[in-house]
Amino acid sequence: MSTPVSAYHLPGGIIGPPARSASWRSTHGTPDPVSDGDATLIAAGLDLPELSPAALVEVSERLRATGPDLRQIPVEERIAIIDRVAARWLTPDFPLRRLAVERLPLVTGYPARTVSLALDHLWGALRGGALHDAVRAELDDAHAPSGLALHILSGNVPGAGVFGMIAALLAGVPSFVKTARREPLLPALVANSLAAEDARIGAALAVAPWIGGDPGLDGAAIASADLVLAYGRSESLTEIATHQPARLLSFGPRVSVGLVAHEALDRHTAALVAMQVALFDQQGCLSPQLLFVEDTAATGRFVEAVLGELARLETTLPRAPLSLAETTAGWRHLERARWRAQEGEHLSVHAGPDDRFSIVSDQSGTIPTSPLNRHLVVVPIPHLGAAERTLSQIADCVEAVGYAGPTARLPEAVAVATTCNAPRLCPLERMQQPPFAWRQSGHTRLGCFGASATPVPAPRTATSAA
Amino acid sequence: MSSTDIHARIRRYIADPTSDDFGELALAAHHYQYTRNDVYRRFVDRHPAPQRWQEIPAVPALAFKETDLESAPAADVFLSSGTTHGPTRRARHHVPDLALYQHSALTGFQRAVLPAGARRPFLVAAPERHSHPQSSLGAMVTWLREAHDSTAEPSLLLEGAVECERFATLLDALDPGQPILVLAVTAALLHLADYADPRGRSWALPAGSLVVDTGGCKGYAEQLERAAILARYRTLLGVETSQVINEYGMTEMCSQLYARGEEPHRTPPWVRSFVIDPATGAETPLGHLGILRHLDLANLGSVVCLQTEDMGRRTEAGIEILGRVAGAEPRGCSLLLAS
User: Fold this and answer.
1) For chain A, N or C: smaller number of CB within 10 Å?
2) φ, ψ dihedrals at B250, nearest 5°
């Protein structure tokens, strides 16, 4: 058993010391060695709080009361505090970083190297310069902050949702952060590190997990907040909406795609593609699921090169263990593709040992799908603009377009990203390294925390577009 | 071997499992299909040629949504309900020999539920042939009624909804000395329980009665564990778990598995079921979760070995079936547009 670690941040005096919870249950009723949360979290040595609806209301009220103190700290000072914390996290021997690298693999299944890369990307984006730029771009004198933000996080990628926590602090809004059962640790460590740097900042943050979908707990937290930032599956977001939050910003399922010009069909690009597929096992909304490739005589070699790189990454960046449902989804994806190929449809299947990773090259004209977890779909196209035809069918569901090709052809990539209203166009190798100011799901990073911000309609999600 | 020979041998084997060798029959059925079904042959040719019946490649059930798989001209085509993946993609099972299907369905029922020749009143809340001509369950229910039902009470399932008031009236009028058989989709009985609970109504079926349910919670708003379903039946109908038998079947398969109470499902002798690890395609160790594969000799007309996406685990006593793999849905941001 590992040394216990608190997977929460509840500032002193808000409620009594939390106790290890034994009440977490697998939500699907069927034991599964991967997704059975209890066993995983207890094995990782996480202490979890026991929370009641009344406790959530009390936490929320006390957080709301910290707003004036938070806003008393000049924004420049808040930026400096966050920047110092970022610098600590970027130091390999920072104790909380070491703790995250040790425990997050136990919690999430991602290897330690993935966690390290996630931390580097996260905190690298939270340095003073980027924060200054965002504040200058999005906050003005008329900014009147909301009273209290509730962040309902998903656990698919370590650190997902931390940008929102930091943004709230910069906007002067205290935050209650509900972490996901799949990854309750890192947001708590982030809050602890901020609190250690400045108690006033720490007082404006509470981080705790509870099982989403509990009407009493969800209802109490949502009713107490002026703004809810909700990340997760469409079903979860729909359920959250039923509580009629004062204002809801949805960050639902979205997809990202790669776009490779024929000039870039080489081993270097293949390695970049494979890395983006392997990092986070395509679990993030910025992970490439589809790759549009300009079709030439080199396409076949390129696909094989990506497959070879995925094989190499099995050793250096192994895939997280899968649940039976995830394994079955991958199996179904490949069996269906093989069946369709057998029956003469225009697609081919390239897979690693035991189908642990694969590339389906699909020219059938249907909208291709990926079951994630290192199953990439490549769509050969005659020219970059041809991607628009497929992407126009999923317009507003695309989060990022990652481009590999000559700078001179960037306008073609811009046209593709514009077609599908993707909030982000970036170099392919930086797809999962977003800048702080990235308009995630189309929402402004800081402006959304204004009390008078215009409510943004929920963006279409991959699921809702079905 | 002629087509007549293999049909006759399988029919005989279903009636008397000592009449032949399962492995030989399975390989003969595979060969029959390989020589008559181009689609199946293309599938098999992607795999090493089977030397033993255990090596016969399992056709993924999803293929029934992509292609017509028939080893002889179909006498009937059954369609899945289409509720799992929406109405547009429904599995199509081409059945050339309805008599073999009927023989398998009746013999399986008679091994697990009522002996051949037994008749008793049925209360049915399930599809029937005349109301659901494309439903394989509807065909089976009609055959079972013809063979075992001593009354002709119309099904209580009308256009997908259970007629609770008529159901209640019929339950009120039961002769306490006459055991009956309730044959229903699980959701229908749960809906009846929802109807009865707030009205403070419940019944005690006559001693010796049986409840046969099928279909899991499909069509019901909540996913309930088997134990919870049995508890609701106990409250609703006064039946012990030993009086409740669950039928597991699928459109793509002519035979059924049955489980009494909370016991695991058991296969009839002409079916072999395995629990497979989808990551490796190998059988899982005893007690480990996997997806179910069935080798069903009664599927002579289509494909003999099927790979499903139903979740289960093998126990010493049989196969514990745990429903469809939980949505088989990815954890993260998913592209579900064309599924």
Assistant:
1) N
2) -150, 155
Structure tokens at A364: 């059938």
The token pair that represents A304 in the structure block: 């094989």
Burial B89-100 (b: 16+ CB within 10 A, else e): ebbbbbbbbeeb
**Domain of A120: which CATH number?**
3.40.605.10
Biggest CA pair distance of chain B: 62
A259 in the same domain as A240: no
Rounded distance, CA B108 to CA A78, Å?
73
- Output the CA–CA distances (angstroms, integers) from residue B220 to A27, A132, B131, B224, in the order listed: 18, 53, 21, 9
Over its length of 466 residues, how does chain A's per-residue pLDDT go in tens digits? 578 888 999 976 555 444 444 333 333 333 343 444 556 777 788 888 888 999 999 999 999 999 999 999 999 999 999 999 999 999 999 999 999 999 999 999 999 999 999 999 999 999 999 999 999 999 887 778 889 999 999 989 999 999 999 999 999 999 999 999 889 999 999 999 999 999 999 999 999 999 888 899 999 999 999 999 999 988 899 999 999 999 999 999 999 999 999 999 999 999 999 999 999 999 999 999 999 999 988 999 999 999 999 999 999 999 999 999 999 999 999 999 999 999 999 999 999 999 999 999 999 988 888 999 999 999 999 999 999 998 988 888 999 999 999 999 999 999 999 999 999 999 999 999 999 999 999 999 999 998 766 544 555 555 433 2
Instruction: Quote ipTM for the complex.
Output: 0.91
Query: What residue in A sits closest to B67 (Cα-Cα)?
Result: A343
Q: Is A337 on the interface with B (CB under 8 A)?
A: no
Q: Measure in Å the smallest separation between the Cα of B338 and chain A Cα atoms.
A: 6
> What type of residue is A191?
A
- Please give the backbone phi and psi of residue A34, each rounded to the nearest 5 degrees, phi first: -90, -45
Q: Are residues A244 and A275 in the same domain?
A: no
Structural element, H or E, at residue A256: strand A255-260
Instruction: Extract the tokens encoding A281.
Output: 């096992």
Q: CB–CB of B289 and A462 under 8 A?
A: no
CB atoms within 10 A of CB A431: 27
Tell me if A460 is assigned to some domain.
no
Select from A156, A332, A370 the Cβ nearest to the Cβ of B328. A332
Mind listing the domains of chain B with CATH numbers?
Answer: 3-73+271-313 (no CATH), 100-263 (3.40.50.12780)
CA–CA separation, A235 vs A241, rounded Å?
10
Whole-angstrom Cα distance, residue A449 to residue A429?
31
Selection from A9, A455, A456, A354 nearest residue A196 by Cα: A9
What's this model's pTM, rounded to 2 decimal places?
A: 0.90
Contacts of A26 in chain B (CB under 8 A): none
Look up the domain containing A202 and give its range: 5-251+440-449
Regarding whether A62 and A192 lie in a shared domain, the answer is yes
d(CA B335, CA B339): 9
Any chain A CB within 8 A of the CB of B63? yes
> What are the strands, taking DSSP E only, across chain B?
59-60, 76-79, 92-95, 122-125, 157-158, 161-162, 181-185, 210-214, 244-248, 257-260, 271-276, 290-296, 305-315, 318-324
> Is there a single domain that holds both residue A312 and residue A379?
yes
Given a contact cutoff of 8 angstroms between Cβ atoms, the answer to whether B191 and B163 are in contact is no
Asked if A463 has any chain B CB less than 8 Å from its own CB, the reply is yes
Residues 381-420, chain A, touching B (beta carbon < 8 A): 393-394, 397, 399
B221 touches chain A (CB under 8 A): no
Burial of A75 (0-12, 13-18, 19+ CB in 10 A): middle
Counting the structural domains of chain A, the total is: 2
Q: Do A299 and A213 reside in the same domain of the chain?
A: no
